[in-house]
Input
Amino acid sequence: MADLGQRLSRRTVLKSGAAVAALGGVSAFIAACGGSTSTPAPTAAPTAAPTAGPTAAPTPVAAVTFGSNYSDDVPKKAMQAVVDAFTKKTGIPVTVNTVEHGKFQDSINAYLQGTPDDTYTWFAGYRMRFFAAQGLATDISDVWSTIGASYTDAFKTASTGDDGKQYFVPFYNYPWVVIYRKSVFAAKGYTVPATIADFTALGDKMKKDGLIPLAFGDKDGWPAMGTFDIINMRMNGYDFHIGLMAGKEKWTDPKVKAVFQKWADLLPYFDPQPLGKTWQDAAKDMIDSKAGMYFLGTFAGEQATDKTVHDDLDFFPFPSFGTAFDAEKAIDAPIDGFMVSAKAKNVDGAKAFAEFLASGEAQLVFLASSPNNVAAAKGVDTASYSPFQKKMAEIIGGAGKIAQFLDRDTNPAFAGANGMQGFLQTFLGNPTGDLDKFLSGIQAFYDTL
Amino acid sequence: MSEFAVTQPVSSTAPSASAGGAVLPTTPAKKRRRRKFSVLTRRDRLTLVFMVGVPAFIHIFLIWVPTVASIILSFTKWNGVGGIEKIQWIGLRNYEVLKDIYQPFWPAVQHNFIWLGTFLFIATPLGMLIAVILDRNLRGSRIYQSVLYMPVVLSLAIVGFIWQLIYAPGSGFINNFLDVVTGSTKWTTPGTAIDWLGNHDLNLWAVLVAASWRHVGYIMVLYLAGLKSVDNTLREAAAIDGANARQTFFRVIFPVLAPINVVILVVTVIESLRAFDIVYVINKGLNGLELLSVLITTNLLGEASLIGFGSSIAVVLLLISIGPIIFYLYRTMREQPE
Amino acid sequence: MTANATPVARAAAPVASPEKKKQSRHLGTHFFLTVICITWLFPLVWAVYTAFRPYSETGANPRGYFSVGGAYNFDNFLKAWKDAELFQHFLDTLIVAIPAIILILFFASMIAFAVSRYSFRFNIALLMLFTAGNLLPQQVVITPLYRMYLALPMVSPISDNGMWYDQFFGLIMIHLAFQLGFCTFVLSNYFKQVPREINEAAVVDGASVWRTYWSVLLPLARPALAALATLEFTWIYNDFFWGILLLTKGWKFPVTSALNNLSGQFFTDYNLLAAGSLIVALPTLIVYLVLQKQFVAGLTLGSTKG
Output
């Protein structure tokens, strides 16, 4: 700062030419940027050295710092229970830094380059690989040599970066399904629809009964992505969907247009005013029986804080479309988990924590307080699962293809508020607009990245 | 965010009022007897350099250096990870994308201008009108003034939250009121309620009502201060000449208040360009509420920042604001004693 | 619009209007103002009403928010206070606002003193720079500033992570940089009204520049400083933008920015949201109602006295 200050003051204050001043300031600024990033990240020693991390801890057991985005009531408490269990087991204290879910993602870039916590919550898939590729995550392949046996290959793949090393510990996942209240279905004599025709017929009945067939809230921009994903996978198959996400397929493809046309046909069954509601608002609509069903991740159950209401919740997979891809039973079942930051101070502690998080034991502690997800580790004792969770495990197990979610399967800059969030809201605001123009706009934006 | 604007009026009223004072015979022109720098001792001179230099450095370092950096970065591509070696120079590419491909851009520009127009033609005149009325020293004038000014002390973020209670789809006041009036029950006929914040044709106007709620009081207080500084002899003279109230205001008072009019104009313009908080708390500036200020932060935040691209939007905002700023500087500095 | 005649002009007019007519006109004006005031108060009143009612009676029932009756209590306020950890966030606000206000007034009064009492070659240039900087939309500088804050080093007691980013210190500095212009203007106008003789007497007594500033002029500026402190407190308290961009640790957010950082529950339970918003709004409302004079004085300082 002193050096920078001197340089700046000499150039900007003493010299009168504005241009000179400007250049001086900027070069100092850029130099400062370069300086910070060239700081070598503490590379983790893959060997399990018994000594403390790179910065010798003054106390015998150094605390692990943990950045958490579990900010909503239910998951926040559940995560605290996990942390307590870890500390009880290993004696390693954990300092939790909880940041609101959306805010956490907004500042993740600065967070990881600045002074991140040793370990932090994150998502599998492209979003994990992105940070691994930028050198912002610590390679935890050594942890995986211990925990590998407790995960299926699919989970290992989802935890592996572009360089073939593992950077992620899966904790739980959850399916995107159509959620409803059993009591409402029973009272009105509704049955679970298997095909899209059944589904729309049910929707018509619900409308007649004064219900919104499908609750929907897309104020935050991302919930609509789930709807796009499922229609695309049902109509065009998993491989096309993933290809589209990876940029191998074009948004201008007529197959994509067909998806939006189908979606527009289905929109009359959705809440007609989704853009002023958050997903929590929409979940409340379903929970308060204003809407008959809700297509969302099972985390929607978090909004049912009353246990009897939660027990009344049930769900089914999005209906089949009668295409060749029905057999795939593809779904979005995003995996949430943890990463160790590249700048972690207490790498050993963080890895110990990661290892603990990979155990069925830790995952069950979390799921006991937040029964809206299922454990990622295989062979977890599911006896303690609620029927809600058992069904989740069943649906995920029965799915032939599992996608993560639009914003986890594609370039984050494309999925964000600038890109797909805004595009999908535009579509929802004007579903009968010119689709060709709309789709070529999406493709043009993708191409700029 | 409104603070600066607020500040402006004040600061600007100061020099401007002195100009106004020159018009009025009652205010004697001040004689300047400022001491020359050169007669000071070395130590005193150093003290003065410190007194001016430190704050000036902080200001330049944290405001003007980043401003210039914004301009430079707008010609680059950088995702915010890594140092200068990762910054690519791409010339005018960001501006081309902005113009042709980036869909929120033109709506944002349009929304900023709608914001400006609403403030300029509705909120600001209403504030001025109320100020003129309150300047009559009616009974209870202070109470009216307090009530109308109250929203101004609230942050625009809080204003956003409070007005969501009015606009919210199911629970908001207006939709419930409409349901009662029309006798509908919103559960059975979804869609009769108006989607104030979700409908992209409506939400900007809904937000503008909330923003004006705050802006009117602000303008009122500024203008009232100006009116209070007007010498009463002017009004008396106008009355003697047989001018009616309207004539007195438009022909005598309004011209005398030229300096404060400038302040109010500039405050209105700058406030419109700075608008951010209220839109951000409502829906992060998506879906009909795009504003240039929000687009800049949208590109900065997130997993993959588009630093260069976001900077190009900042440059557009800078270019739009530079006009009023120069106009303001020109008006006030001209009046500033040398 | 004819109703706009000032009372002064009217009183001075040689032909006094008939008493009755005058009164009825005032009645119309009062009616107009009363309607506007009720409209203006309504959103706040509605928020208060909502905040006092439990969610179970409003949110979960048809037209619940529009109903009357049932329980009214402070539960939402207590829950908002506790769940949102508002005490911590109020503390954060004070940690930022108090040093910021002191520094702003200190630095602004120094510059104001220097430019109003001594002539520099670049007096005007300096004032122009400050004013322009003050008018700039914050978003113009945020992108590079954000990167600067991540890159600039800072020693340990001031910064717990070695950077300016995510630090109270960083927040204080940006408030300082942005607010300097305004306070400098107000104070330099204020100082210009102080008779030269006071200054000169000090110089004759052999006082240094610093002593003239610190012991002679600064005490004289106390009313102006008080008014500015009131205004600055409100503005810094109300800051939302810098807080959400330059901080990341959840517990550090000053209270206005913290409101946006609350758990999702706040956004489905509008009663809770209303209570939280009102708690956060309360301090500025109190400051305004108690120190209304300072407030208006701050805004009008210099303008009335020329």
